[in-house]
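Regression test attached.
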Amino acid sequence: MSTSSISLPAHVLRAMIRAYQLVIRPIWGAHCRFSPSCSHYARDAIALHGAGRGSVLAGWRILRCNPWNAGGHDPVPGTACGCGMQNSKSLAGR
Amino acid sequence: MDIKRFMVATALSAVVLVGFEYFLPQQNHKTVEQQAPAPAPVTAAADGAASPAAEPAAKPDAPDPRVTIDAGRVGGSLDLRGARLDDLVLKNYHETVKDGSPLVRVLEPRGEEQPNLVEVGWTNVSGGQVRVPDANTIWTADHEKLTEAQPVTLSWDNGQGQVFQIAIAIDQNYMFSVTQKVVNHGGEGVSLYPFSRVERGYTPVETGGYLVHEGPISVIDHRLDESSYKSLRKGAVPPGNIAWSKSGQGGWAGITDKYWLAAVIPQQDSDVAANYAFLSQGGDKGIYDVGFTARAPLVVAAGGEASTESHVFAGAKEVPLLEKYEASLHIPDFWKAVDFGWFAFLTRPIFTVLDWLNTMLGNFGLALMAFTLLVKALFFPLATKQFHSMGKMRQLQPKIKALRERYKDDQMALNQQMIGLYKQEGVNPASGCLPMLLQIPVFWCLYKDLYVTIEMRHAPFFGWIHDLSAFDPTNIFTLFGLIPWDPAVISPMLQLGLWPMAFGLTMFIQQKLNPAPSVDPAQQKMFQFMPIIFTFFMARQPAGLVIYYCWNNLLTMLQQTVIQRRMNTKAAATSQPKLPAGKK
């Protein structure tokens, strides 16, 4: 995904999420019920929809990521289906 | 690849641990390091407008006359030279948990090691020529002792027609009421600005790190200002030495420690200017000065009198007491003297619940445990749901094993196959991000409450825990005291008490009960080290937090066992092996 046209707040948020992925998630373990995982979803959503709307989308995704939701494949709205490659790529990136 | 990622993850975890060590406050509860004695008596001529025009005081040969203070929870005295409230100890608080530990001193005279005092007075309007009392004025008192039942009035005649009076009363806790009165017998009216201020003549060692604010604090126009000693030092430039001022109506201002506060509180309907000043004595040494000056002068007509009222708080920041004062004296946001932090909207209610449980159960450790039960009850549906799906996962284990065997060389294909299997069976191995995230605020609030509130300070638990807000003092590296050495000499990491070990054990068992859903072997390996890393991390955290976590893990295991047993009996009763699992 191209990151050239995104705003500074979006960059900062994405960097923070990346830091979480590298530092905190190895400690807590991965608990996400979705693919791509909530953090990947958040990064993609912020890149695609900007810091504001992207954060809202990510927040809504985290709220849905609970035992009552079946989970599964749930890409960011607006992305091409990418069912094959993107899915497995996100998982591989865990 | 996996090995590399494992190494990176390990290194990063180490960074987190070291980072915590660096950013979190020191957990030692030693008394504050003693400062070098202040060189000669000093005057806090902070500024002409903020404090009386005080000429350098020579150390008096005879001790100053004093009024004794003896009230419900404080004792000390008041210096009649300069009418300073500069000697106060708290009767209910000791410096350490050891027997015979000295009482906590919140106010100390100038010239001592840690001067901290409160002063009220008047300054002239610009061009005014009234002789106002200063730091060397000897006042006369109408009583020798200030008690709850016996207020004391100090008075001084300036010899030019004005009599100054300061009436001081104290309640059963930490609040002084101060009435400043000027009686004008002269032929002309006089105009003066009343002021009150807190002065601290040394730079304390800040024990709170980034977790709790210590230093100048104020609420003016409902705005909380928590500044640092450093910013005061940086901002204050001669000749005024005022770092900054703030104008507003009412409020309160002072200098706070983690647990103690000295604050002045003007009449809440008066227009005041709060001044923050620092008088440097070289380097970090100097006098910090936070106080209020009235913005409109007090005008005393010839032959008349006029007075202003204010309050002085000097004592422990007990949350219910601050709330009581906030309500009864209309002091805006007085509870904010306790640094509940950004998440006060959560931290404070949780503290209220804990405090209430403590009054019911008589022990903060038990209160923590009862609170954990409440939280567990709240999240019960979530956990039940999660354990049900875990139980189903266990029934799928043979199939998963078969898949692992078949695709052991192709991670990506394995992932795809597993996802397919989960979908087909209608289960999801992960508990979800929301349940994980929900635990954080609770944990954080407990941490913050344990760390900042005085109620948790020196709160005992059973056995060897005498202070829930300090780490477990036992240490396996000394074989619990059998070997007389201090492992901290080698590394502060060599600290591992009994409770943290119990915590590590519960975490280990819990992990065995719930194998991580991850399919990445590097991550699996990482998880195995987590109980060890966490144990060492928790060993340096407040014992109350470790006990909470231990108990929480135990309850979780209990819950899981009960739910699984129920599921197993149900499965055995219905025994329909060929039917596909339900949608849930």
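Expected vs. actual: identical. Chain A touches chain B through 29 residues (CB under 8 Å).
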